[in-house]
Specification:
The chain is an all-alpha fold and 183 residues long. The protein is 72% helix and 0% strand. It has one domain. The longest helix is centred in the middle third of the chain and has 30 residues. Bound molecules: fe (ii) ion (FE2) (2 copies).
Length: 183
């Protein structure tokens, strides 16, 4: 899988996570984690090199600046109370700006990059991206056996039975990934 194919595949995950986060704010943390890692890897394995082509340097800088704007929107949303009735609007604002950015990359920047890069370089970068993505996002914990899983109360039940703690755990959750900290 070359770097363009790998980026487009991860865009599909980002679109899916955004749709899920709109319906279920609990997915918001996972959406943000994928988005921050995507930007970090996309800049290291794609935009840093694309800036070296005269025909593409402006587009590359514009896209990286859009990452910066998205990261500011993330910071704003992270500081907003999760249990506030307007929190879904924060998710929507972040998602709409992000979707616009993904569409622009796929329709304008990736076709240009495909013409500029040598095929073997696209393949090499794709392998690096895939390896980094697996290391940063591919870790999954084994599922509990069904008998034990049945003992775990759902998050909704916890909120209903413990109003004094409602939303506290999620509001304090750390993502463990600083903006741009992995570059
Ligand atoms: Fe991007
Ligand atoms: Fe992207």
């Amino acid at each position: 899988m070359n770097i363009i194919e790998a980026l487009i595949e991860h865009h599909g995950t980002l679109r899916q996570l955004y749709r899920q986060a709109e319906a279920k704010p609990d997915v918001f943390d996972t959406f943000i984690q994928h988005l921050v890692v995507h930007h970090t890897m996309e800049e290291k394995y794609f935009y840093d090199l694309l800036e070296g082509f005269n025909q593409a340097d402006h587009d590359a800088l514009e896209a990286v600046n859009e990452h910066h704007i998205i990261e500011m929107i993330i910071k704003d949303a992270e500081g907003f109370p999760r249990d506030h009735r307007n929190f879904p609007i924060k998710i929507e604002g972040l998602g709409e700006y992000t979707l616009h950015h993904l569409d622009e990359e796929e329709q304008e920047i990736f076709p240009l990059a495909t013409q500029l890069f040598a095929a073997k370089d696209l393949d090499t970068l794709g392998a690096l991206f895939t390896e980094a993505k697996k290391a940063l996002l591919g870790i999954s914990l084994p599922d509990l056996p069904k008998s034990l899983a049945a003992m775990v109360p759902s998050r909704d039940q916890i909120v209903e039975t413990g109003p004094s703690q409602s939303g506290t755990a999620r509001a304090d959750a750390a993502f463990g990934l600083g903006i741009g900290g992995l570059k």
